């Protein structure tokens, strides 16, 4: 895909790259130590748990990583809220009506009903879906994880049935998150023919100009003050927050 | 006497000999033949008390006896010339008089065992009472098998230990024949003893005798004997506690019966030492059914603790196998259906936090405690969980929880969904969450996969 003379445009700050990878490592560790407990009857799970030094160690690793993941998530929400409210950051991850019409437009495009795919801004609906999946799922996991860690504290104020409910929520949400990441995120970042063999943006922070025009035309137009030809009918005005 | 008559006598004697003497046993001497001339026929003697005794001697028996080689006069002192007339008041007096002759040749105290037998015999007992008179045989030929031993041991014999304790070694033949060992002979267990040998052994005490004798059992029951070597009982014994049970304490010695099909009898054995536990057990749902209904499905001591390789149940290692022990019955579908109990109790435990922890502690060889069946249900005092006073059960449960979860409150036990697979009535929240995800996860993943396929398809078409 990438050629030597390709022009690149900066897309992500170093901070976001580090944040992504910290999150990725925490997520992987949580999945490994968590799902091996959930599916403990499989020999691979037994191998993982015993290799980590036993069930107690596995739980210590899981809870410690959970704390790291929680801090990352909370810090992200904190800084994002602060940035949007007081530092005039662009709320680029907010879901608009256009994201739903983009889904429909893209489906039409996939079925060959329209000529062009949806014209997306800085983050397309797939990315927003994943982002909010991580935020919402993360909140669920943090809350239920704490309940499972401190069941006596929770049941001092709340009914006992919340503990098995928290466990059901925690494990089901974990399976869902794992599958979404494995299927959707890894496809989009690795196997999608548009990025194969690897989407390098999350390593370098730069995106090829051509790809940006193709995938984020509205952001490109705003960034360079141009109107792109032959990239659908969408107008930049529609993407500004209401 | 001339030569011819001498020859004639010899010939006649030869014929007489061949006619009268049976194949076995030597011929009677001439003097004895003379005695038999009269005593071979029906004869009797009248005692002072008017009772008669027969004086007839069976020549064949006499010749077959061990004393066939000695003459009548060797014991009786009478000869053809000397046949004094004597009178006795009673038959017993006569027998005592006649038996005195035996000690001329035989020392009754030569063998210590014999001395102890005669020492304990009823007053007035004489040699001929046991050994017979004209039919006397070698002792080892008198009787065969157990009868030989019982010849003495059916009498009220006792042995004395160094400690001064006494033990009756009188054997009840009837009980012996009812035991499972009725086809064994005495010497199968009491090896080292035979009709030839009867070593005199001195033991410190009754207990040390029992311990030593129980070693006999392993000669046949080697598998169970080996198992006991790993038991807490053997461990106590080898550490110098003589009161730790050995084979015979549970199984008995001469009256060994099988309690395989009698669970109560099996439990009763343990009660001998563990009376407190037995009493607690008797009040439990298991013990109650056993004692009141003779229910043979319920566990007795040995079902949980095993019979021979009984390990210390207070160890963490034992705790780790408790769900397996309870699961032997409570995971048995057929058995649980019979009593309208859920066979899922073990599996639901094993899938829960504590069960998973237990499983890995076992695999890791970790001797760390974790809550198992007994922590909520009790041990020997297990009761039904469907009691009327559920609040009380909950209160007791909180106390158990607090052993590990110090800050547990009354709500805490509810966080255990009581062995039920969550359903709409038992744990609706858990059920609904699981139900929701069982639709949501496939919906989401299949949807995303379709998106991916569409994307690839469009990409391929565009190229």
Structure description:
The complex is a heterodimer of chains A (242) and B (463). Chain A contains ten helices and two strands, in the order βααααααααβαα. Chain A has helices at 14-38, 43-51, 55-86, 97-110, 125-149, 151-155, 162-191, 201-204, 209-215, 217-224, and strands at 8-10, 206-208. In chain A, strands 1-2 form a two-stranded antiparallel ribbon. With 242 residues, chain A is mainly α. Chain A has one domain: Transmembrane di-heme cytochromes, Chain C (Fumarate Reductase Cytochrome B subunit, Up-down Bundle), CATH 1.20.950.20. Among the domains of chain B are: 1-103 and 131-138, no CATH class; 312-421, no CATH class; 424-463. Chain B contains 28 helices and four strands. The longest helix of chain B is centred in the last third of the chain and has 35 residues, at 428-462. In chain B, a hairpin with a 5-residue loop joins strand 1 (44-46) and strand 2. The termini of chain B are far apart. In chain B, 15% of the residues are buried. In chain B, strands 1-2 form a two-stranded antiparallel sheet. Chain B has a two-stranded antiparallel ribbon with strand order 3-4. Chain A binds chain B through residues 37, 40, 46, 49-50, 54-56, 107, 109-112, 151-153, 155-156, 158-165, 167-169, 172-173, 175-176, 179-180, 183-184, 187, 192-194, and chain B through 353, 356-357, 359-361, 363-364, 366, 368, 405-409, 411-417, 422, 427, 429-430, 433-434, 437, 440-441, 444-445, 448-449, 451-452, 454-459, 461.
């Amino acid at each position: 895909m990438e050629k030597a003379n390709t022009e690149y445009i900066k897309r992500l700050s170093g901070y976001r790259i580090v944040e992504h990878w910290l999150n990725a490592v925490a997520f992987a560790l949580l999945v490994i130590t968590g799902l091996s407990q959930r599916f403990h009857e499989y020999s691979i799970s037994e191998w993982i748990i015993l290799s980590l030094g036993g069930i107690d160690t596995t739980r210590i690793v899981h809870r410690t990583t959970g704390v790291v993941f929680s801090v990352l998530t909370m810090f992200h929400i904190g800084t994002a809220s602060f940035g949007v409210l007081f530092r005039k950051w662009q709320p680029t991850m907010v879901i608009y009506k256009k994201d739903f019409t983009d889904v429909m437009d893209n489906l039409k495009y996939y079925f060959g009903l329209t000529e062009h795919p949806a014209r997306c801004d800085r983050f397309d609906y797939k990315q927003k879906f994943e982002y909010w999946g991580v935020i919402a799922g993360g909140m669920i996991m943090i809350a239920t994880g704490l309940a499972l860690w401190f069941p006596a504290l929770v049941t001092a104020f709340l009914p006992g049935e919340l503990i098995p409910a928290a466990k059901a929520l925690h494990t089901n949400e974990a399976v869902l998150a794992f599958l979404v990441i494995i299927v959707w995120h890894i496809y989009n970042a690795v196997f999608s023919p548009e990025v194969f063999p690897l989407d390098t943006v999350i390593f370098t922070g730069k995106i090829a100009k051509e790809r940006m025009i193709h995938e984020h035309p509205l952001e490109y137009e705003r960034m360079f003050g141009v109107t792109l030809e032959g990239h659908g009918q969408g107008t930049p005005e529609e993407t500004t927050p209401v | 006497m001339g030569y011819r008559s001498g020859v004639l006598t010899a010939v006649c004697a030869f014929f007489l000999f061949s006619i009268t003497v049976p194949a076995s046993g030597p011929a009677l001497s001439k003097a004895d033949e003379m005695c038999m001339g009269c005593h071979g026929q029906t004869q009797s003697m009248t005692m002072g008390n008017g009772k008669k005794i027969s004086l007839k001697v069976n020549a064949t028996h006499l010749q077959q006896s061990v004393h066939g080689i000695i003459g009548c006069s060797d014991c009786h002192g009478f000869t053809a010339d000397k046949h004094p007339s004597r009178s006795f008041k009673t038959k017993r007096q006569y027998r005592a008089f006649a038996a005195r002759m035996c000690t001329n040749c035989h020392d009754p105290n030569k063998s210590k065992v014999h001395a102890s037998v005669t020492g304990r015999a009823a007053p007035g007992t004489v040699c001929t009472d046991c050994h017979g008179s004209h039919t006397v045989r070698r002792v080892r030929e008198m009787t065969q098998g157990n009868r030989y031993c019982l010849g003495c041991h059916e009498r009220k014999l006792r042995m004395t230990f160094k400690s001064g304790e006494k033990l009756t070694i009188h054997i009840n033949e009837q009980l012996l024949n009812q035991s499972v060992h009725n086809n064994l002979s005495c010497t199968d267990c009491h090896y080292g003893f035979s009709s030839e040998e009867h070593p005199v052994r001195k033991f410190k005490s009754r207990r040390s005798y029992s311990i030593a004798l129980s070693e006999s059992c392993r000669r046949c029951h080697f598998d169970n004997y080996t198992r006991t070597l790993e038991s807490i009982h053997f461990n106590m014994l080898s550490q110098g506690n003589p009161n730790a049970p050995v084979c015979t304490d549970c199984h008995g010695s001469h009256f060994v019966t099988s309690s395989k099909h009698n669970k109560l009898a099996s439990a009763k054995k343990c009660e001998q030492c563990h009376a407190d536990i037995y009493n607690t057990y008797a009040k439990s749902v298991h013990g109650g059914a056993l004692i009141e209904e003779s229910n043979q499905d319920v566990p007795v001591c040995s079902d949980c603790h095993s019979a021979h390789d009984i390990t210390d149940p207070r160890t963490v290692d034992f705790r780790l196998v408790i769900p397996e022990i309870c699961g032997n019955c409570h995971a048995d579908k057929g058995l649980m259906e019979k009593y309208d109990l859920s066979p899922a109790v073990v599996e639901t435990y094993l899938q829960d936090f504590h069960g998973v922890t237990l499983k890995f502690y076992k695999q890791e060889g970790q001797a760390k405690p974790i809550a198992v069946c007994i922590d909520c249900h009790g041990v020997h005092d297990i009761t039904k969980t469907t009691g009327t006073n559920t609040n009380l059960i909950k209160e007791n449960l909180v106390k158990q929880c607090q052993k590990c979860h110090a800050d547990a409150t009354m709500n805490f036990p509810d966080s255990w969904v009581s062995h039920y697979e969550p359903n709409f009535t038992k744990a609706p929240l858990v059920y609904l969450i699981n139900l929701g995800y069982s639709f949501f996860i496939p919906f989401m993943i299949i949807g995303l996969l379709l998106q991916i396929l569409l994307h690839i398809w469009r990409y391929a078409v565009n190229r």
